Amino acid sequence: MNPNPRQTELLAEVRARGAATVEELAERFGVTLQTVRRDVKLLAAAGLVSRYHGGVRVPSSTTENLAYRQREALNAEGKARIARAVAQAVPHGSSLLMNIGTTVEAVARALLQHRGLRVITNNLNVAAILADNPECEVIVAGGLVRHRDRGIIGAAAVELIRQFKVDIGLIGISAIEDDGSLRDFDVREVQVARAIIEQSREVWLVADHSKFNRPAMVELARIDQISMLFTDAPPPEPFPALLSEAGVPVEVAR
C-alpha cells in the first residue's frame, strides 16, 4: 500500500511506542475511532502492523522480543497502575521471588515504602531499585547477565532460587495465548521463571493488555498454575472464560 500522510504518522507512532490502543491513536491524531480502525485495517493488511483486541502493535515475532527500551516505554502508564495494585496487595513482612520484565520492575518501584520485605530476584534492575529501600533485604541470583535488560539467566540462577520457599512469586510474561499457555522467548529465562513458580506459595502474574493474544516461542506455564492475574484492562475473549475455568482471580488496575 501507499499510506497517506495520516497513516504514515500513525505507523510511525505505533513503531515508536511498540503498541497503542485505538482510543489513544484517535486522541493523538484528532480523528474518530472509525477512522483509526479503517487505517489500522489497511496497515495490517499490508503487514505493517498487527492488530489485537482494542489496539495495534508492531508485527509480532515468535522468536524475538521487543528491545528493552521499547518495552520499557510501551504502556508505561498501564504498568504503573498494575504496580500500584500489586503493592497494595503485598503485605508488609512478605518474602517474594521476582523475575525479569519491565512490569515487574514497575512493581519494585511501587514497593519502595514497604517494610520488612525479603526479595530474591534474577533481575539486576529490580535489585537496584529495591536496594534504595532500607526495609527490604535483596538477594540476587547468580548466573549469566543479559546485556540488553540486565536479567540473570542460567543454571546457577535456578539453583539459587530452589533454595527458597516464598510467600509470593511475582512473574512477568511476554505472551498469553488463547490456549491458556504463558510464553516467553528465551528458554533460559523460562527455566528460571519455572523455578520461581515451583518455589512460591502463591504465583502472581503481572501482564498489561498487550500481552494477550501475542505469540512467543517457549511455553513457561499454564494459566491454571497462577494464583492471581494483575492487568490494566479487562482481558479480551476467550480469556475471561479460560481464567474463570482455571479459578484465577483477575485484578484490573483502572
By CATH, the architecture of the largest domain is named 3-Layer(aba) Sandwich
Instruction: List the helices and strands in order.
Output: HEHHEEHHEHEHEEEHEEEHEEEHE
CATH class of the largest domain: Alpha Beta
Number of strands: 15
CATH topology of the largest domain: Rossmann fold
Q: Helical percent range?
A: 25-40%
Indicate the multimeric state: single chain
Précis, in short:
The chain has 10 helices and 15 strands. It has 254 residues and is of the alpha/beta class.
Tell me about this structure:
With 254 residues, the protein is of the alpha/beta class. It has helices at 5-17, 22-29, 33-45, 68-73, 76-89, 102-110, 124-130, 155-161, 187-198, 239-246; strands at residues 19-21, 50-52, 55-57, 95-98, 117-121, 136-140, 144-145, 152-153, 166-172, 175-176, 181-184, 200-206, 218-222, 228-231, 250-252. It folds into two domains: 5-59, Winged helix-like DNA-binding domain superfamily/Winged helix DNA-binding domain (Arc Repressor Mutant, subunit A, Orthogonal Bundle), CATH 1.10.10.10; 69-252, Rossmann fold. It has a seven-stranded parallel sheet with strand order 6-5-4-9-12-14-15, with helices on both faces. It has a three-stranded antiparallel sheet with strand order 1-3-2. The protein has a three-stranded antiparallel sheet with strand order 10-11-13. The termini are far apart. The mean pLDDT is 91.
